[in-house]
Design a protein that fits this description.
Distance between the termini: 36 Å
Order of helices and strands: EEEEHEHEHEHHHHEHEHH
């Protein structure tokens, strides 16, 4: 992707001192929130999310870091990218880092955002000082395949995730819930409601196309990495622990049995304390 221009306006938003901004990379406008003071920390949200995805933990981390929370293409107020690929997101992330921060940075990658962070580090390890991965997908399970089928995927996604009734029924059927408490449930449910359906499906397709390209047997990283795992998670997320041990030579595993798939929303105080401790803050 060739960059035409970079724009970095900043507009005060709320009493916490957080600002809402955007950056133009090529023809894609990336919206983000920024707050705090200190070395840069960038949050990569996952399959659902936007500029608010890190909100439950923002205040705790903003005491130690300048926190950036961007929305991926098509999410939040960010503009979409046609035929989105992981390579596009990685390149946008690279340009975002270089335009907004001094390097190296700390990255927190949640769910599929962690997959983007892993590829970013493979290509540009010099940009990242420390990496925190939260409940990352190791592979796409069979029950996600309907979300890859054109037309059917829109119907299934809207029925299961954007309908309040459908989401509650789906959640009740899972032995592993989307959230461990009502606050966490609302955070996840609101995340699906606020996420553009097309963006979520494009992201999923991009991850699926990219999955076979990562040479797992050769992937190794010396970047200091923390892997946060919920106490009882979905099988592919739980399995990622094995992958993390294989990938990262400098790895710390933090288990949070008090939470499930979304520890930063289900147990934000505990998540913040544990991660900040392991980051040396």
């Amino acid at each position: 992707m060739e960059s035409e221009a970079l724009k970095y306006p900043s507009v005060p938003m709320n009493v916490s001192g957080e600002t809402s901004s955007s950056i133009l990379v090529d023809k894609c406008s990336i919206s983000f929130k920024k707050g705090g003071a200190g070395p840069p920390l960038i949050f990569f949200h996952g399959w659902v999310g936007d500029e608010e995805a890190f909100a439950p933990c923002h205040e705790a981390f903003a005491k130690h870091y300048t926190v950036y929370s961007p929305a991926w293409p098509g999410y939040g107020k960010s503009s979409p990218v046609p035929n989105l690929a992981i390579e596009d997101i990685v390149e946008i992330a690279r340009r975002f880092i270089l335009a907004t921060s001094h390097t190296p940075v700390t990255i927190i990658g949640s769910c599929l955002g962690g997959a983007v962070a892993i590829e970013l580090i493979r290509l540009y390890p010099e940009l990242v000082d420390q990496l925190v991965l939260v409940e990352v997908y190791d592979y796409l399970p069979w029950y996600m395949y309907p979300l890859l089928i054109p037309y059917l995927n829109v119907f299934v996604y809207n029925l299961a995730f954007k309908s309040t009734t459908g989401f509650r029924i789906l959640n009740s059927l899972l032995t592993t819930k989307f959230a461990a408490n009502e606050d966490g449930f609302r955070y996840v449910a609101d995340g699906f409601q606020n996420t553009n359906t097309g963006a979520a499906l494009d992201f999923l397709k991009a991850v699926n196309r990219f999955e076979g390209q990562l040479c797992r047997e050769h992937y190794r990283s010396d970047v200091a990495t923390i892997y946060v795992q919920g106490g009882k998670s979905f099988k592919p997320l739980y399995k990622f622990k094995e992958t993390a041990i294989q990938f990262f030579r400098n790895l710390t595993i933090v288990s949070m049995p008090e939470s499930l798939h979304v520890p930063l929303a289900e147990q934000p105080e505990l998540f913040s304390a544990e991660v900040l401790h392991h980051l040396g803050r």
